[in-house]
Amino acid sequence: MKQIILVAIALLCITCKETTVAQSSASSTTAADVGSIMNFLASDELNGRDTGSEGLEKAAKYIESAFKESGITPYFETYLDTFDAKGTETYNVVGYLKGTDPELSKEFVIVGAHFDHIGQGKDVNGDVIANGANDNAAGSTAVISLAKHFAKTKNNKRSVLFVLFGAEERGLLGSKHLAKVLKEKNLDLYTMVNFEMIGVPLNDKAYKAYITGFEASNMAKKINEYVGSELIGFLPKAKEFQLFRRSDNYPFYKEFGVPCQTISTFDFTNYDYYHHVDDEVSQMNFEFMAELINDCVPAITSILNTPTKEIKLN
After folding, report:
1. Which of 109, 135, 146 is nearest to 260 (CA)?
2. What residues contact 119, with CB distance under 8 A and at least 6 apart?
3. Which among 8, 12, 79, 268 would be 20 to 30 A from 221, CA to CA?
4. Which parts of the chain are beta strand (E)?
5. Contact indicator for 132, 279 with CB cutoff of 8 Å
6. Residues 273-298: pLDDT tens digits?
7. CA 246, CA 227: separation in Å to the nearest integer?
8. Which residues contact residue 36 at a Cβ distance below 8 angstroms, ignoring those fewer than 6 apart?
């Protein structure tokens, strides 16, 4: 009997180990994965991804291809949600992963980032292309990576929209458009997590990233609880400069009145190239980005699977 019990325990341990390895492998975005996406989105070929440009179109096609290959479907008839950006036709790229639970799948979570940039900037040694690596190929890379992860694991009871917003640099036009469209469709939005400028680590902080509108909801507290560490902190400068109102989370907060916030690591001391032609891939820390994306996986997994909506406005 004792031998039978020991064999059973051994088999159970092997099974647990295999499951752990499988889960770890499924959720592991590598620095190489990050580099592959970043090296395209922030390349000179895309010429700074300005609204209405050929470079932005190339970026959109790349994102569409990544979604399609992963099994993320279009939410609308196509992946492109077209709108007018003050006289220029452009679009958001919107991917959809339906929830696995019959009831919770009626609720939605948006994971987003803007993929446009300013095109060209002030000449520096003959270079005028504002590649927008940190702003915001970095955030776009997080969304694409997370979409690949959840399409693979399919462990989302709630439905998810993975959105790359256009015309953010023109005044949050893409997110304003989509928020209104989804509100008119009576979408049941639980929360929205946005990624902005996550390409380099914070300077001398106990936490890995901060969240805009920290005091507006319990999102930071719940994320830290879900991951079991101080992943998200409060950055006073974010409040001082009202960053909560200056990224694509804000139109959804205004339309839906639910927690919609942005995760960032730009703290005004750790990066000198905001809207600068030197905002290049060479300045990015792929290892850090991969680590942050992986750290966000258990948080977003919990957001997608809790029986009730635990993240609430204060």
Report:
1. 109
2. 47, 48, 49, 50, 53, 55, 130
3. 268
4. 73-74, 80-85, 88-97, 107-114, 120-124, 127-129, 159-165, 188-195, 209-211, 232-233, 260-264
5. yes
6. 999 999 999 999 999 999 999 999 99
7. 27
8. none
Q: Nearest to residue 108, comparing CAs of 187, 54, 55, 42?
A: 187
DSSP strand pairing (88-97 vs 73-74): antiparallel
The predicted pLDDT at position 27 comes to 59
Structure tokens given for 84: 């007018």
In angstroms, rounded to a whole number, what is the distance separating the alpha carbons of residues 217 and 222?
Answer: 10
Compute the residue count for the chain: 314
Give the separation between CA 97 and CA 38, rounded to whole angstroms.
23
Name residue 258's amino acid: V
Q: What residue has token string 């690591």?
A: 265
Cα–Cα distances (Å) from 236 to 146, 242, 259, 266, in that order, read 28, 10, 19, 12
Structure tokens at 252: 């959804």
Would the pTM of this model clear 0.90, i.e. be above it? yes
Domains of the chain, CATH where assigned: 29-305 (3.40.630.10)
297 burial level (CB within 10 Å; 0-12, 13-18, 19+):
buried
